[in-house]
Structures are given as structure tokens and as C-alpha cells.
């Protein structure tokens, strides 16, 4: 009990110190008469910003001077080890790290993502000496992104393609090559006197924490939105000048805003400062919400560690080509044999556009300029690329030859379309079977046991994917029915005059 109240008061102190620190920043503004940073842990949303009174549209809620952003241009790390910040130098990192032992420039060369991880580790290690200390204190130390889930928790995602995207091993490799190597080569910079030394396992953990923080909190720093004509002018070092990419930065206060698919605030990127503005009237007690984009709940979970009902409209499901191919083979590839089929696959794979899997999604209108969503998202068709790949495959089958009559007859467009739709329908059904529970069981689980935390989020992701699969199947079935109806109308029309002729 006491532990809880201690934790609560630490949380409240963290918020107070952060807001007070923010207000002292030169050039910062914060409408404390209109908004407050509040404890939203009761609804699993950490801290967030709530309207204290009714706020009219277009009100500026707070302003963040660019000098307050943590990025490679502002962190003192760039003066301590300038070599690694030279992104145009392909040997960056390797040459500066001084070890250069493996002679492999690309494995240790940096990008804006890895440099920000290094800058965040540096600032963290500075402790009280970091100008961002009160801000760093309110950033999370633990995450709900699947990167940190146990195998048992991950298994709740069942057949979701998200499981393959977690990428823990890949992240470990990147951290070893680009973060640990640099920190170890500059222990004096990263471990100032008085700071605790970290062993490799602790450093790996800290790098993961900073990587996850950046993933969920950092902003792509755009150029001034009003400055449209300035293309080509790479000024002030705010814009990473390679390939027109923007610079990543941690933006205090802007990242205290939570976000949803329906939102009411926007961060404008100005020349000297970023401003948070109300997009529409916000009522007292309402949460001020930003927008992360039209993300499926699976992607929201992967990047940010949460899901919301409003993001379900953007849910997607992946249909592996292997399932379509296997159904096609069952239908028409019977006489081709293993080798013939292998030949077909090799031919088809020569196509540059060949895809291993296809994303099925609904059509959805963008939110309007005030952040509100309009009509429901609807499944309106299979991806064109899937149809193209199916055609490529049929052509390859004809070339290889020795196929059943069904394929020989494929010169007829409707027969081909019918074969396509029926094959995909069966593949969609097979895809649904890959999940350990049915959509109906998931609905029941969501209603009856009302799971919480990671279990709830996994349930939402897999249920959302199954819903898209069901809608896709209904759409394909409808397309088959329409094709059949057209065919029987044509048959009747063909029969009509012929019958008359016979009578004559
Ligand atoms: C940019 S931060 C927002 C501030 C954050 N709530 C905090 O306490 O630091 C993004 C993180 O906030 C949480 N978050 C954002 N929007 C949310 C929402 N609508 N519901 C629940 N959590 C949300 C997620 O954990 C996400 O990774």
C-alpha cells in the first residue's frame, strides 16, 4: 500500500518537475490556464494532457523551442565524438571508434536513428548534468511493445504477421554493431566520473530502452511548414541533408500528448519552434490528442505498445502467396508434378514484382482537417498486385505446359476471373484456419473474460485481422455470385434468339 503511494507521489513529482522545467525554457509557452499534464495510468495511458476548460479551435496550447529538442544537433555528444556524426562520411563510426578492427564500414556506420540512441544514452548517463534531466525522468523505463513480450505472450498473437516483425534478434545485432561498439570505444565520454559503470548486458538493455523510447516518442523534425519554397536550402543543420530525409528528435511536451485515430490537436513545425494547436473546439475534461497516422492496431502495438477501438478501422491482414499457390495447385496443377511446379515457381519469381505476401485492407477516408473520422471503413477489393501475380503464375503454367484442361481454357477472361476468385476464397479460408481460435471465440473472450494488458492487446490484434479476413471472404463470395449471375444472363440471352431461329 505504502509502496503504491510512494510510486504515485514519485510519478506526481516527476510530472510537476517536468512541467516546471518546461516552462523555464527560453521561448517555451504552456497554457496552464487551459491544459494540464495528468496521470492517466488508470486507463493504461501513462501521462497525457487534459483540457481544464473549454478550448476554442486554433488555440495554441504550447510551444517548444527547437533548442529544447534532443537531437544530434543539440546534444553535446556531437562535440565529444564529432566523427560519428558526419553522416556523409561512410567510415563514420568506424574511423572514430578507433578500433576499426573488422574493416567493415557499413556495420558500424550510423544513421539518424542510431545517433539519437547514442545521444539519449549519453544524456541519460550525464544524470543531473544533462540539461534534459527533468524530461528524461518522465520518459518510460519499461514498454508494452511486443519486443518485450515473453514467448507465452507472443503466442497470443497466434498467426498474426506481427510476430515475425518483432525483430528482437535483429535489434540486438544492430545495437552490438552500432551502439555498444561506439560506447565502449568512448567509455570516458559515456561514463562520466560518478556515473555507474554498465556491463555489456546492462548497456544492451539501456540501448533497447532508448531505441523503444525513440520509436514511441520521437518526431521526424520537418522544416518550417510555411517555408514551402525552401527546397534545396539545407539550413541550420535541422534537416539531415541526405535524400531529403528529416532529422529525428525527442520533443519535450509534444510527446506527452497521447494519440488516436480521431484526434483534436496538431504539432506544427515552425522555423524556431514547434507549436501544439487545437484543431477543433476541445471541451473541458477531454483529452488533447495527437495523431500517429492511419495505423492498424498491430502496427500501433509494434511501434507504440497500445491499441485503440478507433484504430481498428485501419486493421490489415497478410495473405501469404504460398496459400494462394497451394490452392491453385490443388485446383489445376494436378498433373504437373513436383518438378513442373517448381519450374513454374521459378519462372514466376523472375518477375521483379513477385511478392511473398499481400496486405488486405479496407478502404477508409482520411480524417478531416479537424481530426474527425467520417464514414466506416469498408472492404472494397483485393489488392491489384495479387491479381497481377495470379496472372503471371497462370502464364508461367501455360509455358511449362502439361497442365490440366482447366488452364488451357484460361483464354476466357471470365473463367480466369472465376478461377482467381475461388482460389483466393479458399486461401482466405485457409489463412483463417492458421489462427488457434476462431473469430467467434475471440468475440466471446473479449466480452466474457474481459482480459487486460498484453493479453487484451493481443486479442484485439488477432481479432481485428480475422475480421478483415471475414470481410474479404464476403467480398470475394459476392464477386463470384455476380460473375455467375452475369454468366447465366448471357446464357439466357444466347439461348433466346437461337430458340427463335429454331422455331422459324
Ligand atoms: C508519445 S508518448 C505519449 C505520452 C505517454 N502517455 C507518457 O506517459 O509518456 C506515446 C506513448 O503513450 C501511450 N499512448 C499514446 N496514446 C495512447 C492512447 N490513446 N491510449 C493508451 N496509451 C497511449 C503509449 O504507451 C505510447 O507508446
TrEMBL record:
Its EC number is 2.1.1.-. Residues 26-293 form the SET domain. One of its GO terms (molecular function) is protein-lysine N-methyltransferase activity. Keywords: Methyltransferase, Nucleus, S-adenosyl-L-methionine, Transferase. It is an enzyme of class 2 (transferase). It is found in: Nucleus. It comes from the Eukaryota. SUPFAM superfamilies: RuBisCo LSMT C-terminal, substrate-binding domain, SET domain. InterPro entries: N-lys_methylase_SETD6, Rubisco_LSMT_subst-bd, Rubisco_LSMT_subst-bd_sf, SET_dom, SET_dom_sf, SETD3_SETD6_MTase, SETD6_SET. GO terms for cellular component: nucleus. Pfam families: Rubis-subs-bind, SET. Residues 88-108, 358-378, 483-504 are annotated as: Disordered. One of its GO terms (biological process) is methylation. Gene3D superfamilies: Rubisco LSMT, substrate-binding domain (3.90.1420.10), set domain protein methyltransferase, domain 1 (3.90.1410.10). Its main location: nucleus. Belongs to the class V-like SAM-binding methyltransferase superfamily. Histone-lysine methyltransferase family. SETD6 subfamily. S-adenosyl-L-methionine-dependent protein-lysine N-methyltransferase that monomethylates 60S ribosomal protein L42. This is Ribosomal lysine N-methyltransferase 4. The lineage of its organism: Eukaryota, Fungi, Dikarya, Ascomycota, Pezizomycotina.
Amino acid at each position: 500500500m505504502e509502496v503504491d503511494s510512494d510510486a504515485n507521489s514519485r510519478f506526481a513529482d516527476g510530472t510537476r518537475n517536468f512541467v516546471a522545467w518546461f516552462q523555464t525554457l527560453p521561448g517555451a509557452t504552456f497554457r496552464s490556464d487551459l491544459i494540464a499534464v495528468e496521470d492517466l495510468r488508470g486507463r493504461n495511458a501513462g501521462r497525457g494532457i487534459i483540457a481544464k476548460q473549454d478550448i476554442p479551435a486554433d488555440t495554441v496550447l504550447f510551444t517548444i523551442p527547437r533548442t529544447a529538442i534532443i537531437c544530434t544537433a543539440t546534444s553535446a555528444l556531437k562535440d565529444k565524438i564529432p566523427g560519428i556524426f558526419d553522416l556523409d562520411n561512410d567510415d563514420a563510426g568506424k574511423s572514430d571508434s578507433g578500433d576499426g578492427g573488422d574493416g567493415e564500414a557499413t556495420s558500424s556506420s550510423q544513421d539518424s536513428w542510431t545517433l539519437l540512441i547514442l545521444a539519449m544514452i549519453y544524456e541519460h548517463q550525464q544524470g543531473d548534468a544533462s540539461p534534459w534531466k527533468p524530461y528524461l525522468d518522465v520518459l518510460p523505463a519499461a514498454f508494452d511493445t511486443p519486443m518485450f513480450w515473453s514467448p507465452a505472450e507472443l503466442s497470443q498473437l497466434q498467426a498474426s504477421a506481427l510476430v515475425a516483425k518483432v525483430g528482437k534478434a535483429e535489434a540486438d545485432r544492430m545495437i552490438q554493431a552500432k551502439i555498444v561498439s561506439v560506447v565502449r570505444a568512448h567509455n570516458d565520454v559515456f561514463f562520466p566520473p560518478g556515473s555507474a559503470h554498465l556491463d555489456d548486458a546492462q548497456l544492451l538493455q539501456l540501448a533497447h530502452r532508448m531505441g523503444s523510447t525513440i520509436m514511441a516518442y520521437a518526431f521526424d523534425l520537418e522544416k518550417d511548414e510555411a517555408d514551402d519554397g525552401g527546397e534545396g536550402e539545407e539550413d541550420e543543420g535541422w534537416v539531415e541533408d541526405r535524400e531529403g530525409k528529416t532529422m529525428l528528435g525527442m520533443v519535450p511536451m509534444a510527446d506527452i500528448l497521447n494519440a488516436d485515430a480521431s484526434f483534436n490537436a496538431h504539432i506544427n513545425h515552425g522555423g524556431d519552434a514547434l507549436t501544439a494547436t487545437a484543431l477543433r473546439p476541445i471541451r473541458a475534461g477531454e483529452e488533447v490528442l495527437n495523431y500517429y497516422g492511419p495505423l492498424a492496431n498491430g502496427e500501433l502495438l509494434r511501434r507504440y505498445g497500445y491499441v485503440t477501438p478507433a484504430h481498428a478501422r485501419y486493421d490489415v491482414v497478410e495473405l501469404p502467396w504460398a496459400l494462394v499457390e497451394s490452392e491453385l495447385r490443388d485446383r489445376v496443377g494436378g498433373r504437373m508434378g513436383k518438378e513442373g511446379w517448381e519450374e513454374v515457381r521459378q519462372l514466376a519469381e523472375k518477375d521483379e514484382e513477385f511478392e511473398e505476401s499481400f496486405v488486405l485492407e479496407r478502404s477508409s477516408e482520411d480524417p478531416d482537417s479537424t481530426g474527425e473520422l467520417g464514414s466506416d471503413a469498408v472492404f472494397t477489393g483485393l489488392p491489384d498486385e495479387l491479381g497481377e501475380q495470379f496472372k503471371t503464375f497462370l502464364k508461367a503454367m501455360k509455358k511449362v505446359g502439361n497442365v490440366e484442361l482447366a488452364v488451357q481454357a484460361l483464354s476466357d477472361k471470365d473463367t480466369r476471373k472465376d478461377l482467381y476468385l475461388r482460389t483466393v476464397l479458399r486461401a482466405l479460408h485457409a489463412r483463417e484456419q492458421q489462427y488457434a481460435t476462431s473469430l467467434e471465440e475471440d468475440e466471446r473472450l473479449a466480452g466474457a473474460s474481459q482480459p487486460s494488458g498484453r493479453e487484451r492487446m493481443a486479442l484485439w490484434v488477432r481479432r481485428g485481422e480475422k475480421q478483415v479476413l471475414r470481410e474479404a471472404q464476403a467480398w470475394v463470395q459476392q464477386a463470384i455470385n455476380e460473375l455467375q449471375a452475369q454468366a447465366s444472363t448471357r446464357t439466357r440471352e444466347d439461348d433466346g434468339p437461337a430458340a427463335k431461329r429454331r422455331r422459324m
